[in-house]
Amino acid sequence: MLHTAALNLQLSAVDVLSTIPNPGGGSAPPGSEGLLTILSWAAWIALALGVLGVIIAGITMMIQVRRGEGGEGLSKLGWTLAGCVVVAGASGLVTAFV
Q: Are 11 and 19 in contact (CB under 8 A)?
């Protein structure tokens, strides 16, 4: 009995959640091609700089190991990779909050 009531409650909750409209997913307004081009260029430049940052962090780590400074350059690599993750997931992050 209790199992059937819980199942019915779950099914009714699914029905309610499936009827909520999604406000996103619309089409871009006319004339937005220029903005989308700029956003594409910005994403490409940011990821190119991310690759450059990883290379520079690797070079810094090689120099620091030679000097005996250990893993201090590892934090630079971590922050660079974290920035790359944010840039790569920017549209997904914004979509999640909208």
A: no
